[in-house]
């Protein structure tokens, strides 16, 4: 064990992750190119030796990790930043003042339990935050989505709503943003003054869905409640901005820790726009009174957002990389009819993890168990916006060049070849980005004591 720790201490920094260009922006008209980062920063109270025994205790300390987290955020310098597991006190006394110096403004809300606590305890409650570059965006309105309150309001005739969904105090947080003139670039055939009248509304939402795999029904219900609330917020936004008959012009960017694998009901619902009424994740439990209010039919439930995920498993096999679990649980979804991804950050080379015997994150070079995701999007008035990847912050190449189809095919083929040629060991992860080395999701059994500690720590996570 001592040898292992010494290896961690002497491990060199991981190599830069590759930037994968997907397409070029349309320069024939004004465009708004921006980057998005999604990052679960791992709240201090969850970063324990019982949970992450492979990480040195000093590297789990918040005073150490917060510097690495801030360095990552500044290195990638995304225009929109979505954070989860941010402590209330750390938002107001660390993240907000630090990022204001870098030209950001931000909003935050703690989980619902904070309302029941004294001030001395409330400051340690974690929640969600959204930061945006104030030179490019202005805040029109913010919205808090409390899943336990929605469950209570829809609990009539459903004991499962009261007993399974309502006790979980996860939240979603949404910011209605408008682009500023400085966010736009003139097209090749446009007059310099044409961008002055452009203003694109974007609804940015971040969410942290319940963690426990035994409550997959709760995850799916929370996600469906989130979609219903977002529909109401989009309708309200159209009225606020006087977009009569143009509600779809408010573009949607949904980022977060959904604690759900790609084959889950949550991801199927968000990406396909529908989920079967008898999906296994409902666990055949009685949610009929709530579900009948959802759009759809007796056989399936739907939404009309037309979302796509910024990342695929071919390129990003992991967004969570710990000793006992490796898989995709963090996502960036975007309105595919109005946004187009220009590029994204690729995975870290698996060779680094193997050579330095890194078995999981956090790690002295990686401050969270869920390294950030980051990608670049292009927004043009009344056309597709670039997508941003979820759950990890990463730099975006704002001047991606090359034939878009060829770039996309070559980039993905290159990543597939890399994955197939590398066997993913069990090593500790690196700085702010999860190793993406194997396409299959690995789950390792813990000792009973570790499982009990996870249950205790995450009881209200």
From TrEMBL:
Composition-biased stretches (Polar residues): 403-416, 424-436
EC number: 3.1.13.4
Required co-factors: Mg(2+)
Source superkingdom: Eukaryota
GO MF, one annotated term: poly(A)-specific ribonuclease activity
Transmembrane segments: none
Compositional bias ranges of the Basic and acidic residues kind: 375-401, 438-461
Catalytic activity reported: Exonucleolytic cleavage of poly(A) to 5'-AMP
The protein's enzyme class: hydrolase
Keyword annotations from UniProtKB, A to Z: Cytoplasm, Exonuclease, Hydrolase, Leucine-rich repeat, Magnesium, Metal-binding, Nuclease, Nucleus, Repeat, Transcription, Transcription regulation
Segments forming a coiled coil: none
Residues in Endonuclease/exonuclease/phosphatase domain copies: 38-342
A cellular component annotation (GO) from this entry: cytoplasm
Stretches the record annotates as Disordered: 363-461
Cell compartments where the protein resides: Cytoplasm; Nucleus
Family of the protein in this entry: Belongs to the CCR4/nocturin family.
Name assigned to this protein: poly(A)-specific ribonuclease
